[in-house]
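Model it.
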Amino acid sequence: MRIAFKEWAVVVDALGAGDQCLLLRKGGIAEGANGFSVEHQRFLLFPTGFHQERESVVPGAQRRFDQMAPIPQAQTEVCLEYFAEVTESLVLELPDTMDRLRGLHVWRDEVIEKRFSWGGQRGLHALVVRVHRLAGSVRLPMLAAYGGCKSWVELESDIETGGASPVLSDERFAEEVCRFRDCVGWTGEQGGGVCVGDSKNDGAVPAGCQEKGGGCNFHD
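Modeled.
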C-alpha cells in the first residue's frame, strides 16, 4: 500500500485505539477550489503535527495528547502504524448533523463548526473507516513531497499490510456504524436533506445491527 491520508497525530491515536471510526474533512489549501474528495478506499494513516493544537480536541483526547511524543512542525520522519478502509462516505450539509455526531470523534465543537463553514461552502465529508493495526510500525523519512496542507500523499515505496489486524471486533465496529447512521439519519439512499453524497456501501445494515429509529447513544 502506497497511498496515505494525513491526519492530526492525536486523531490517528484515537482511531488506532478504537475510540473513533470517523473522519471529517473539508479539504486543504493545496487541494484547490474543489476541496477534498474521497480518492481512495484503502489508505495508510499518516500522523502529522501540522495545524494540530491541544485546545482543538476534547479533554479526554487532550490527556492522550499530553502523553504522546510531540511531533515537531519541522517533522523529520513519520511513523506509520495503521491503515484504514472506508465503509461509509457521505457529504453532510446541515449544521445540526454536526451536533448529533458529537461524541463520535475527538474534535471540539468550534473546530468542526469552523471546518463546516470554511471556504464559503458549508458542509463536510464524513468517512466511516475500519482501522487495522500493521503487523509492525514503519518509520519513513519525511520528504518535502509529503508536506503542505493536503489530505492525500503517495509514499515513495509500498508498505506491507499483510498480517494487519482490525482494532475493533466485527461486532463492535458494526455498533459504531449503526451509531453513525442513526446520528445522520442514514437510509442507504442519496438525499433526504441530511446526507447528500455517494455511499460506498449498499445501504444494508451491518451484521449484528438492527435498523432503529431512535436517537444515537453518544460515547461517555
